[in-house]
């Protein structure tokens, strides 16, 4: 469930007062007007204001003027996302956790319960997150850890294209929001300054000819600084590159806007635009690479992706190999 910031005894829903304050940030709203709008007492309003202050909102109050939202905490609350993002598909439902095991696992449970297309699961911190091939994913405070539940009208063989779509959306959002030069490393890593700042994990439930749902997990190292020993030298954060804190909400809003744009475009017109954007952002194409799969290791030159998102690699003997999964490193 999303974090509840109101008292059970108040009839005011947790998002209503906050949404009103966010829509009028910097402007005083009288207690009388709020009371009339929501049909609650001044005492109930005061409780709500104090609840918001307890989680970090700076709200000024005046006996004559009322209440004024001055500053918001660095939290990815649903109300903050709705107030900053003009979305039509993504975020119709948002499940927010201060801490959870894995947003992907939470999302799979919610998807089985029938939540709608575009539902988001967001956490400030994860303690059982994982990446590709079951690897642990470090998810402390300060990052962006989220999962998106999609119910596309694609056939199952098109599902891998959603990873490509997400990689493009993440990379463009990072560039737009921070100015940092980010690139994509096939299949699902986002690099900046030569190190990994984001991973994407796509999981699907499907029948033979129809997708039930797709879960896209995104983990972005934003303002987190500490990495386990095995990730030092491999991973970095946007804060470490930029030398200053990054506005997580601005980055998330940009990501969701781009992801929704490409998702709607793909459902109506296909993935042509996404693939062209991916090619322009990919660090592998035209480069000599090593591919480590489950059963073999080989070398070659990455030349393109095919219409299904598989990486096309030309080996030393001129054969073009279609790679569906594996780890890729530059030679």
TrEMBL record:
<feature type="binding site">
    <location>
        <position position="126"/>
    </location>
    <ligand>
        <name>biotin</name>
    </ligand>
</feature>
<dbReference type="Pfam" id="PF02237">
    <property type="entry name" value="BPL_C"/>
</dbReference>
<keyword id="KW-0547">Nucleotide-binding</keyword>
<feature type="DNA-binding region" description="H-T-H motif">
    <location>
        <begin position="31"/>
        <end position="50"/>
    </location>
</feature>
<dbReference type="InterPro" id="IPR036390">
    <property type="entry name" value="WH_DNA-bd_sf"/>
</dbReference>
<dbReference type="InterPro" id="IPR036388">
    <property type="entry name" value="WH-like_DNA-bd_sf"/>
</dbReference>
<dbReference type="GO" id="GO:0016740">
    <property type="term" value="F:transferase activity"/>
</dbReference>
<dbReference type="InterPro" id="IPR011991">
    <property type="entry name" value="ArsR-like_HTH"/>
</dbReference>
<comment type="similarity">
    <text>Belongs to the biotin--protein ligase family.</text>
</comment>
<feature type="binding site">
    <location>
        <position position="196"/>
    </location>
    <ligand>
        <name>biotin</name>
    </ligand>
</feature>
<dbReference type="InterPro" id="IPR004408">
    <property type="entry name" value="Biotin_CoA_COase_ligase"/>
</dbReference>
<dbReference type="GO" id="GO:0004077">
    <property type="term" value="F:biotin--[biotin carboxyl-carrier protein] ligase activity"/>
</dbReference>
<dbReference type="GO" id="GO:0003677">
    <property type="term" value="F:DNA binding"/>
</dbReference>
<dbReference type="InterPro" id="IPR003142">
    <property type="entry name" value="BPL_C"/>
</dbReference>
<feature type="binding site">
    <location>
        <begin position="130"/>
        <end position="132"/>
    </location>
    <ligand>
        <name>biotin</name>
    </ligand>
</feature>
<dbReference type="InterPro" id="IPR008988">
    <property type="entry name" value="Transcriptional_repressor_C"/>
</dbReference>
<dbReference type="InterPro" id="IPR045864">
    <property type="entry name" value="aa-tRNA-synth_II/BPL/LPL"/>
</dbReference>
<dbReference type="InterPro" id="IPR030855">
    <property type="entry name" value="Bifunct_BirA"/>
</dbReference>
<dbReference type="Pfam" id="PF08279">
    <property type="entry name" value="HTH_11"/>
</dbReference>
<dbReference type="GO" id="GO:0005524">
    <property type="term" value="F:ATP binding"/>
</dbReference>
<dbReference type="GO" id="GO:0009249">
    <property type="term" value="P:protein lipoylation"/>
</dbReference>
<dbReference type="GO" id="GO:0005737">
    <property type="term" value="C:cytoplasm"/>
</dbReference>
<keyword id="KW-0436">Ligase</keyword>
<protein>
    <recommendedName>
        <fullName>Bifunctional ligase/repressor BirA</fullName>
        <ecNumber>6.3.4.15</ecNumber>
    </recommendedName>
</protein>
<keyword id="KW-0238">DNA-binding</keyword>
<dbReference type="GO" id="GO:0006355">
    <property type="term" value="P:regulation of DNA-templated transcription"/>
</dbReference>
<dbReference type="InterPro" id="IPR004143">
    <property type="entry name" value="BPL_LPL_catalytic"/>
</dbReference>
<dbReference type="InterPro" id="IPR013196">
    <property type="entry name" value="HTH_11"/>
</dbReference>
<feature type="binding site">
    <location>
        <begin position="102"/>
        <end position="104"/>
    </location>
    <ligand>
        <name>biotin</name>
    </ligand>
</feature>
<comment type="function">
    <text>Acts both as a biotin--[acetyl-CoA-carboxylase] ligase and a repressor.</text>
</comment>
<dbReference type="Pfam" id="PF03099">
    <property type="entry name" value="BPL_LplA_LipB"/>
</dbReference>
<keyword id="KW-0678">Repressor</keyword>
<keyword id="KW-0805">Transcription regulation</keyword>
<keyword id="KW-0804">Transcription</keyword>
<keyword id="KW-0092">Biotin</keyword>
<feature type="domain" description="BPL/LPL catalytic">
    <location>
        <begin position="93"/>
        <end position="267"/>
    </location>
</feature>
<keyword id="KW-0067">ATP-binding</keyword>
């Amino acid at each position: 469930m999303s974090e509840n910031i109101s008292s059970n005894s108040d009839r005011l829903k947790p998002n209503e007062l906050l949404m009103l304050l966010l829509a009028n940030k910097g402007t005083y709203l009288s207690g009388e007007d709020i009371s009339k709008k929501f049909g609650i007492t001044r005492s109930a309003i005061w409780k709500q204001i104090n609840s918001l202050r307890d989680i970090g909102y700076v709200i000024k109050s005046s006996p004559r003027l009322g209440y004024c939202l001055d500053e918001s905490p660095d939290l990815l609350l649903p109300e903050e996302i709705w107030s900053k993002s003009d979305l039509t598909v993504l975020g119709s439902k948002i499940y927010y956790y201060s801490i959870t095991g894995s947003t992907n696992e939470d999302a799979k449970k919610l998807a089985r319960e029938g939540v709608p297309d575009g539902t988001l699961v967001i956490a400030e911190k994860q303690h059982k997150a994982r990446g590709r091939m079951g690897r642990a994913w470090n998810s402390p405070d300060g990052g962006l850890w989220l999962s998106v539940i999609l119910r596309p009208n694609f056939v199952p063989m098109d599902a891998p294209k959603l990873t490509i779509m997400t990689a493009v959306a993440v990379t463009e959002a990072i560039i737009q929001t921070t100015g940092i030069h980010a690139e994509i490393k096939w299949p699902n890593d986002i690099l900046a300054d030569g190190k990994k700042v984001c991973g994407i994990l796509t999981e699907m439930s499907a029948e033979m000819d129809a997708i039930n749902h797709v879960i896209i997990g995104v983990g972005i190292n934003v303002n987190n600084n500490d990495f386990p020993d095995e990730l030092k030298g491999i991973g970095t954060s946007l804060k470490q590159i930029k030398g200053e804190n990054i506005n997580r909400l601005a980055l998330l809003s940009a990501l969701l806007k781009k992801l929704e744009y490409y998702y709607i475009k793909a459902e109506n017109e296909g993935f042509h635009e996404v693939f062209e954007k991916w090619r322009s952002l990919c660090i592998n194409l035209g480069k000599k690479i090593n591919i480590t799969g489950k059963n073999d290791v080989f070398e070659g030159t990455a030349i393109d992706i095919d219409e299904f998102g598989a990486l096309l690699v030309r080996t030393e003997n001129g054969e073009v190999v279609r790679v569906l999964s594996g780890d890729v490193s530059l030679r």
